[in-house]
Amino acid sequence: DQQVKQNSPSLSVQEGRISILNCDYTNSMFDYFLWYKKYPAEGPTFLISISSIKDKNEDGRFTVFLNKSAKHLSLHIVPSQPGDSAVYFCAASAFNNDMRFGAGTRLTVKP
Amino acid sequence: SQTIHQWPATLVQPVGSPLSLECTVEGTSNPNLYWYRQAAGRGLQLLFYSVGIGQISSEVPQNLSASRPQDRQFILSSKKLLLSDSGFYLCAYQGDKESYEQYFGPGTRLTVT
């Protein structure tokens, strides 16, 4: 069952503009959410996370927003750079048990 | 510092042949270890996880198995590969069990022909 969903398989953005990647989840027991970035033929790298007690976490150009009532989170990248082009995975965990990943969104940032 | 290794990086195996993928972690003790598979055009599917030596939990019934013979070693195996086993296999560890973040190895690209 798909407890974590990324409904947009791809997103194309102009360099310097904002990239917004979305993620929805169904399990209300999830208490921690993460974003990973993945380049082809490499393992995913941890990008940013947020606890369910917060609604926003910011790290440089990356900000994650959590809307618990809507069971929705998003990753904002401002400004977008060509090096940000990669596949982004949303992940969620309940009480530090195993993590569930979305299918990923391929972000392309055009120069 | 903590590092994670996986090998081989790529593997081409015929249908029905056995499989052994190895993952080792350095710089941490008693980590949680995970095997994931990323199939073409799909997300990351959790296959197995281990919270300690000899302790394996399986998420998906299939012809794969996992073993943890040592604290920082995690092995993914199969006695007979299927075409559907093709994919990108990733090992991950969670060094701090109070933390949620998992850190991934470089992956193994398996092609079953």
Please provide a written account of the structure.
The complex is a heterodimer of chains A (111) and B (113). Chain A has 111 residues and is mostly beta strands. Helix content of chain A is 0%, strand content 55%. Chain A contains no helices and 11 strands. In chain A, strands 2, 4, 5, 9, 10 and 11 form a 6-stranded mixed sheet that branches. In chain A, strands 1-3-8-7-6 form a 5-stranded antiparallel sheet, with no helix packed on it. The relative contact order of chain A is 0.35. The model of chain A has no long low-confidence stretch (mean pLDDT 94). With 113 residues, chain B is mainly β. Chain B is built from no helices and 11 strands. Chain B has strands at residues 3-7, 10-13, 19-26, 32-38, 44-52, 55-58, 64-70, 73-78, 87-94, 103-104, 108-112. In chain B, the strands form 2 sheets. In chain B, strands 2, 4, 5, 6, 9, 10 and 11 form a 7-stranded mixed sheet that branches. In chain B, strands 1-3-8-7 form a 4-stranded antiparallel sheet, with no helix packed on it. The mean pLDDT of chain B is 91. Chains A and B meet through β4, β5, β9 and β10 of A and β5, β9 and β10 of B.
